[in-house]
Amino acid sequence: MWHNPSRLPINSDIPAKLSSTDTGDRGSESASPADTPQRQTLSVAIITLNEEENLARTLASVQFADEIVVVDSGSNDRTVEIARGFDARIFHETWKGFARQKNSALEKCTGTWILSLDADEELTTELQREIRILLNNRPSADAYMIRRRNLFLGSWIRHGGYYPDPKLRLFRRYAANFAPPARFTERPVHETIAFDGVLETLQHDLIHHAYPTIESYIDHMDRYSTLGAEIIVSKGKTSRSLWGFYYNVFLIPTFTFLWNFVFRLGFLDGREGFLLHLYHSTYTSWKYAKAWQTTRRS
Fold it and tell me: Residue 236's pLDDT is what?
């Protein structure tokens, strides 16, 4: 059950950074957690491609971290220049898919803890303070979910399943029970972290500057529906029968809109909520239609 955030005490003794991080010889990475120093350090991992409109805002919100790792896949705008201005460690790699690209960023981190962010996400001031207090003490968990405020056309979407939208973003590089490092699961889209350990939820929010324009939403959903179709095809749900086609391409999107907009109170988010749920149901239709199109061609 979600609860209202409580106000954290203001601690003037919290340092600007958690501590300094040794970026030299990394041969000690294979050491067990019992052998590592108790000092908690934080690495931020981000993958980028043409994120000049978002990246500075994101990096400005994690300046308390010991290390920022940016894996860029060929930006031709000011993304790399912006990352360099925030003293990030920058790596240039060809695109391998969301999960593999993010795992590559995780592998380059040297901190005790990793905060994995998308380039269009930003930590609130309250969340920054909460993480700094947490890591300056003895965290009781091995990983933390962070609630996310999703913005659509600049408006916070609070209903219809879009909040609190918890995501696993903060985790130990090695779990306390000597498990392998946390990694993103291999799937074309909507990748998630797989780890072994104790999970808790932080009190404060991450801001997701997701879709500032309708055009950006349509562009993303076009690409994501193609990736989603790959998952559907791999599961064999390709609408081979006429009934299956109409059910997947029309009925499921219709039910999705009604469920989120009406029963989950999406209408309370006004015009922005209506457009978001309408276009999300369209994305669902595209996903199944593209899966059917793939098998139709074959």
Answer: 87
Residue 224 exposed, middle or buried by CB count within 10 Å (0-12, 13-18, 19+): middle
**Domain residue ranges of the chain, discontinuous segments joined by +:** 36-211, 214-297
- Write down the number of H helices and E strands in the chain: 8, 11
Q: 36-211: what CATH class?
A: alpha beta
- In one-letter notation, the amino acid at residue 110 is T
How far is it, in rounded angstroms, from Cα 64 to Cα 216?
A: 31
> For residue 108, what are the contacts with CB-CB under 8 A and spacing of at least 6?
45, 69, 71, 89, 91
CA distance 289 to 135: 46
Q: How far apart are CA 93 and CA 244, in angstroms?
A: 41
Is residue 144 within 8 Å of 128, Cβ to Cβ? Answer: no
> Predicted confidence band at 196 (pLDDT cuts at 50, 70, 90)?
confident
pTM (2 d.p.): 0.81
* Tokens (6 digits) for 234: 């791999």
